[in-house]
Structure formats: structure tokens, C-alpha cells
Amino acid sequence: MDCQGKTVTEARLAVLGLGNILMGDDAWGPYLVRVLEAGYCFPEDVVLRDLGTPGLDLTPHVTGLEAIVLVDTVLSAGVPGELRQYRKADLLRRPPSPRLNAHDPGVGEALLLADAMGLGPAEVLLVGVIPERIAPGVGLSAAVRRALEPAAAAVLGELSRLGRPAVPRRPAPPPDAWWEAAAPAHG
Predict the structure, then answer these.
(1) pLDDT tier at 101 (50, 70, 90 boundaries)?
(2) Calpha distance 80→77 (Å, rounded)
(3) Which residues contact 94 (CB under 8 A, 6 or more apart)?
(4) Kind plus residue range of the DSSP H or E element containing 123
(5) CB 3.0 to 4.6 Å from 19: which of 14, 29, 45, 84, for a disulfide?
(6) pLDDT (tens digit, 9 = 90+) per residue, 150-179?
(7) pLDDT tens across 77-100, in order?
(8) CA–CA–CA angle 10, 12, 17 (5° rounding)
């Protein structure tokens, strides 16, 4: 199926990739967005965006939507490559903590602010992966790369649950992870 003719009327649902493409496994969120864009066509009211590390600038990206699916690395007990899923209530269970670095996406703060304005999404799912390494460098570790397919399935399952199923492209082109292609080879 060709998705090129898609015109977005008004986004009602967003899949938002968070992470720094220059910090190893932290590129997982943006990479997963590229995997989904390459492999599937989405309903016209569903948008996919690579937001990088937005911090508190995340708020405008979550307001006015019915639902959001966030994809990012998460600090959690477990082994690299394991997936974690958190709903809105899970993300808001603890009060926001001080932001200690530029990577901290400020998800809780953005959701609280959007809700305070009466514009917060009713449905939120964070699909996260436990990283192996977040350090300067380009490219995902093998464990985190293996998590892309099951994470894509989790995102697609959530979209179907919300009544916005995606349609697979046949054949699907490879994802456009331009930052990996542009990185110098290491020997």
C-alpha cells in the first residue's frame, strides 16, 4: 500500500519517539518511529514524530490529542532489551522529580500541564526498552535492536485497541536511520 497520498486533517493520536540519536541506545525511540514509518501506513489522524530530547517542550506535542504512544528508553530493573509498558496512571503515580539532565523528557510534567489546561490525552502508553549503553556514539546495541520488532507490535496493538489500525506496506523499505549511515565507520 502506498502511503504517500496521505493528508493529515487533524491529528487525534500521536506516536512520539524520544531520545538522542548520538547517544547509543538512547536512539531507540527515534529508530522505532522510523521502523513504523517504513513498515506501515497509518490512518490520516495518526501522526508519528521523532521529538529528540524535548524536555518541557514536550507539552505542546501531547496537548489536544485523544491518545499518545511514547517510545523511549527507560531506567528499570531488568536486562538490556527488555520492554516495559506504562500507562498514564503509572507515569503520574509519583510526583515529578527535578530534571537532572537534558535527556529527561519531562513526561510527567508535560502530562500534568496538559491536564491542567484541560487538553491532556485520555490515553497514554509508554513503550520503553531497558538500554545497554547510553554514551556518546551512534548505533543501537544488539539487545536493544532486537527489541524493535516486539516494541513495534506493542505500538501497533495499542493503535488497533484505539480503533486506528495500521496497514503493513508490502514490500516495506528499510527504516531511514540516516544518522547510522552518516556515522563514520569504527574499526
Answers:
(1) low
(2) 9
(3) 108
(4) strand 123-129
(5) 29
(6) 999 999 999 999 999 999 999 989 999 989
(7) 999 999 999 999 999 987 766 655
(8) 105
Q: Per-domain residue ranges for the chain?
A: 13-166
φ/ψ of 75, rounded to 5, equals: -85, 115
Does the pLDDT value for residue 1 go beyond 50?
no
Query: In the chain, helix, strand, coil percent, each to 5?
Result: 35, 20, 45
Write down the architecture of domain 13-166 according to CATH: 3-Layer(aba) Sandwich (3.40)
Q: What's the rounded Cα separation, in Å, for the pair 28 and 19?
A: 7
In the structure grid, which three cell numbers stand for residue 81, read together? Answer: 532489551
Q: Which residues pair with 68 in a beta bridge?
A: 14, 124
| Percent of the chain at pLDDT exceeding 90 | 73
- Identify the residue whose cell numbers are 501497533: 156
Please check whether residue 129 is in contact with residue 13, taking contact to mean a CB–CB distance below 8 angstroms. no
